[in-house]
Write a structure and sequence with these properties.
The chain has 377 residues and is of the alpha/beta class. It is built from eleven helices and 15 strands.
Length: 377
């Protein structure tokens, strides 16, 4: 079954986000005890009980997706949109955020296929690394995901069904080599697989339809991508998102990828327009995974209405359900920390102050602020 999902939400958000980055953002200062000077860089791992740990202690990630670095570079807009400074991170800390997901563009990272030189290659990699380091200095986790990719000489301007055999292994070898010393980094292997089988997802070697040219291309599977990461000596946790735009985990356990470092995380994307959007579905297909592996809902949000009802309602909401799974085994990150239309969906109207959209962003902010702030979890 093909899930109606947010394949187009990046494109819908792009224009609004592009306007936002041109504006001068004024920050009203806050004084947080979790300042960069006082924070301890997380030391992440995955234990045999199916938990993400920080320095050996079970840790739940509660965070946001900071979109922009997947599209700005190929649209000649820059590298990262919104506030990527300490000011913006202070606003996130005010929400009690402890993790930020950073979408990456394969071509921009590798500096190939005609991406403007000013926004690609070394300059792109340096900008991403500077932000990852800033998150680390504030005690925050960085999740790096392969978000936009493309085969051959095609410019990566959209989401693809799955990673390509042409560049994706090279991409992950480079990313893993860069960040293997960073103990606060998780590798999210591929953003939102769709229109492929579970066997293709796991082992690759099949073909998928290029979302840009509509031509067929050869797929690289999760096993090859994770193996490429491990070949560099990187032992960072790795996340493998399910099928149907990341929402379908029905075959995840029976097709679990091989990870030599045994730090594999199951990833899911859950929006109010998806098929698996109820506690019944999550209990059936998501919860069993947590017996052996952590689950990170690395994107969630409300597309159909600008409310947080889907996420925060006590008996049916996604976040209360995640919190109900014992052992801090389910983490979650909201889409997105971008100043855009609420139903994009966007959590904030200003990435420097963290001013929340109403009522989606404000509901998530209130929910997060009931949780401990850094450095506690």
């Amino acid at each position: 079954m093909k899930y109606a999902h947010a394949a187009h939400r990046r494109r819908n958000v792009t224009a609004l986000c592009s306007l936002a980055v041109l504006a001068t953002l004024v920050f009203v200062g806050f004084n947080f005890s979790s300042s960069a000077s006082a924070a301890t860089t997380p030391v992440l791992s995955v234990n045999s009980s199916g938990q993400i740990t920080n320095a050996g202690v079970a840790w739940q990630l509660r965070g946001v997706d900071k979109s922009g670095s997947e599209y700005a570079c190929v649209q000649n807009l820059g590298i990262m949109t919104g506030d990527s400074t300490q000011t913006g991170i202070n606003a996130m800390l005010g929400w009690h955020v402890n993790a930020v997901r950073i979408p990456l563009n394969e071509d921009c990272w590798l500096g190939i296929n005609g991406v403007p030189a000013v926004y690609s290659g070394t300059k792109y990699r340096t900008a991403i690394t500077n932000y990852v380091n800033l998150l680390a200095s504030n005690g925050m986790v960085a999740i790096l995901d392969l978000h936009w990719s493309a085969p051959g000489t095609e410019l990566a301007t959209k989401q693809q069904p799955m990673a390509d055999a042409d560049h994706s292994v090279t991409f992950w070898k480079s990313v893993a080599t860069t960040y293997k010393p960073k103990t606060n980094v998780i590798f999210d292997v591929f953003n939102e697989p769709y229109s492929i089988s579970w066997s293709c997802w796991k082992s690759g070697g099949c073909t998928a339809t290029d979302a840009i040219s509509a031509k067929k291309y050869t797929v690289t599977g999760m096993n090859s991508l994770i193996s490429a990461i491990r070949s560099t000596g990187a032992t960072n946790p790795v996340e493998a998102n399910g099928l149907q735009w990341g929402n379908d985990l029905s075959g995840w356990l029976t097709n679990k990828p091989t990870d030599a470092s045994k730090k594999l995380i199951a990833g899911a994307h859950v929006y109010d327009i998806n098929a698996c959007k109820t506690t019944s579905c999550w209990n059936t297909y998501y919860k069993p995974i947590t017996a052996t592996n952590p689950l990170v809902i690395s994107e969630y949000g409300s597309k159909s209405a600008c409310t947080s009802t889907f996420e925060t309602t006590a008996t049916t909401g996604l976040l209360p359900w995640a919190d109900s799974v014992s052992g801090k085994k389910v983490s979650y990150l909201g889409w997105s920390w971008n100043a855009a239309a609420c139903t994009a969906p966007s959590l904030v109207t200003n990435t420097s102050t963290g001013a929340a959209t109403s009522t989606y962003g404000s509901g998530i902010k209130t929910y997060y602020q009931k949780k401990p702030a850094l450095p506690s979890n």
